[in-house]
Design a protein that fits this description.
Layout: E1 2-8, E2 11-22, E3 25-35, H1 38-64, H2 69-78, E4 82-84, E5 96-98, H3 100-118, E6 124-127, E7 132-134, H4 135-141, H5 143-146, E8 148-154, E9 159-161, H6 162-170, H7 179-189, E10 200-207, E11 210-213, E12 221-224, H8 230-242, E13 249-258, E14 273-282, H9 294-297, E15 301-304, E16 315-318, H10 319-325, H11 330-343
Parallel strand pairs: 6-13
Antiparallel strand pairs: 1-2, 2-3, 4-5, 7-12, 8-9, 8-10, 11-12, 13-14, 15-16
This protein binds zinc ion.
Zinc ion binds near residues 154, 195 and 196.
C-alpha cells in the first residue's frame, strides 16, 4: 500500500492506495482518504494498515474454528434451514425438511448448477421425471440385483452395515469388499454387534430400493428411484427425437432420489430421501476421436491423475497431448476441459 497526493483547486489531499493485479496489468485502487496534512496522513495510513492485518488474522482465526456435524445440525435447525422431518411426532432417521431459509438457499444452489451445466453446450437440456419407476427399469439397469448395502446381523437380530461396523475396528474406510470378504474380516477382528455386543452370525446383501405397490389389488411392481440417472437413459430416444436429433445430447435433471439406508447418519450426508443433480451426456462412441470445438481447448492444461500412472501423481498435460496418449478420446477430453474452463 502507498500514499498518493492529489491537488484539487490548489489544495493537497492525501489518499491511501493499493496495487491490484488485473489480468496482465497492475492497477492502483482506492483504500481510504487520509486528510489534508502529510504527517497526519502518514499516521492514519499506518493505523489502517495495522487494522487490516488485524482483520485478516481475525478472519483466518474464525475460519480455523471447526464445529462438529451435530453442532452444524443444531445451527441449521435454529436458523430454520433444515431439520428432521415430522420431528414433533418423533421423526424418522434420515429424513429432513427444508425450512424457508433452507429452501431459498437450496433453490439458489440448484439454479447455479442449472446455469452452469446447461450452459456447457447448446444441445444440453433439462428434464423432470417421475420418482416412481417400473420394476423393469431396475431389472435392466441392474439395480434390483446390485444396488445393495451389505448388512451384518447379530445373534439377537440387530442389523447394521457391515462396512461401518468394520470401520470402527480398522479405523479406516472399507470399500469395494463383497459380503464374504466382509464377513471373514469381521470374524478376524472379532467385531461384535454395536447395539448389544453379541456375535455377528450373518453377513449378506440387502437391496436399498423402496418398493411401491401401485394401485389396489394389482401386481404392478414399482420402485422409488434410488438415483436420478435412470430417467435420462430411459427418456433418451424421445428427447433425441424431439430436440435436434443431434449428438452430443445432454440431459440434465434435478430431483429427489430415495435409498433405504441401513444406517442413515452424518446429518445430510447420508439420507433416505435427498436431492440429486445429474447431467448425462450421450455421444456416438464411433466419433469419440472428433469434436467440432476441440481446437478451442486443445492447448488448455488439465491437472490429472492417470489410473495407469498413479505413482506419478498429478500431471499437467494439455488436452492435445492427453488425446494422443489415449488414442484420441477427444470427446471426453473436450467435455472435461470445457467444464474446467467455465469453472475458472
Ligand atoms: Zn445385537
Amino acid at each position: 500500500m502507498f500514499i498518493t497526493k492529489k491537488k484539487i483547486s490548489g489544495k493537497e489531499y492525501y489518499y491511501l492506495q493499493k496495487s491490484v493485479r488485473e489480468k496482465d496489468k497492475v492497477k492502483s485502487e482506492y483504500v481510504a482518504y487520509l486528510g489534508k496534512d502529510k504527517t497526519d496522513a502518514e499516521k492514519k495510513a499506518e493505523e489502517i494498515k495495522k487494522q487490516l492485518v488485524k482483520n485478516k488474522n481475525q478472519f483466518q482465526e474464525t475460519n480455523k474454528k471447526s464445529i462438529t456435524i451435530d453442532e452444524l445440525a443444531a445451527f441449521c435447525k435454529r436458523k430454520g434451514f433444515v431439520y428432521p422431518s415430522g420431528e414433533i411426532y418423533g421423526g424418522l432417521a434420515g429424513l429432513y425438511d427444508y425450512g424457508h431459509n433452507g429452501l431459498l438457499l437450496k433453490k439458489n444452489f440448484e439454479n447455479m448448477w442449472r446455469t452452469y451445466f446447461l450452459g456447457l453446450h447448446e444441445n444440453f437440456f433439462e428434464i423432470e421425471a417421475s420418482e416412481i419407476m417400473p420394476e423393469n427399469v431396475f431389472i435392466a439397469s441392474g439395480h434390483l440385483k446390485n444396488f445393495n448395502d451389505i448388512a451384518a446381523k447379530c445373534k439377537k437380530g440387530h442389523i447394521e452395515r457391515a462396512d461401518h461396523l468394520l470401520e470402527k475396528y480398522l479405523k479406516k474406510r472399507v470399500d469395494g469388499l463383497n459380503a464374504e470378504e466382509l464377513f471373514s474380516l469381521i470374524k478376524e477382528q472379532k467385531a461384535v454387534c454395536s447395539q448389544c455386543g453379541s456375535v455377528i452370525d450373518y453377513v449378506g446383501a440387502i437391496n436399498m430400493m423402496f418398493p411401491i405397490q401401485l394401485g389396489v389389488g394389482t401386481n404392478v411392481k414399482a420402485y422409488l428411484r434410488p438415483e436420478t440417472a435412470q430417467s435420462p437413459y430411459v427418456n433418451f430416444k424421445t428427447e433425441f427425437e424431439t430436440t435436434r436429433g443431434k449428438l452430443p445430447l445432454g440431459l440434465a435433471l434435478i430431483g429427489r432420489a430415495y435409498r433405504n439406508e441401513l444406517s442413515p447418519r452424518n446429518f445430510l450426508l447420508r439420507q433416505r430421501a435427498f436431492t440429486q443433480a445429474e447431467l448425462q451426456i450421450f455421444f456416438n462412441p464411433a466419433n469419440i476421436h472428433e469434436h467440432e470445438e476441440f481446437d478451442e481447448i486443445k492447448k488448455y492444461i488439465l491437472y490429472i491423475v492417470l489410473s495407469s500412472e498413479r505413482e506419478r501423481g498429478i500431471q499437467h498435460i494439455t488436452c492435445e497431448e492427453l488425446t494422443k496418449k489415449f488414442q484420441n478420446f477427444i470427446f471426453i477430453t473436450w467435455q472435461r476441459s470445457s467444464s474446467f474452463i467455465l469453472n475458472n
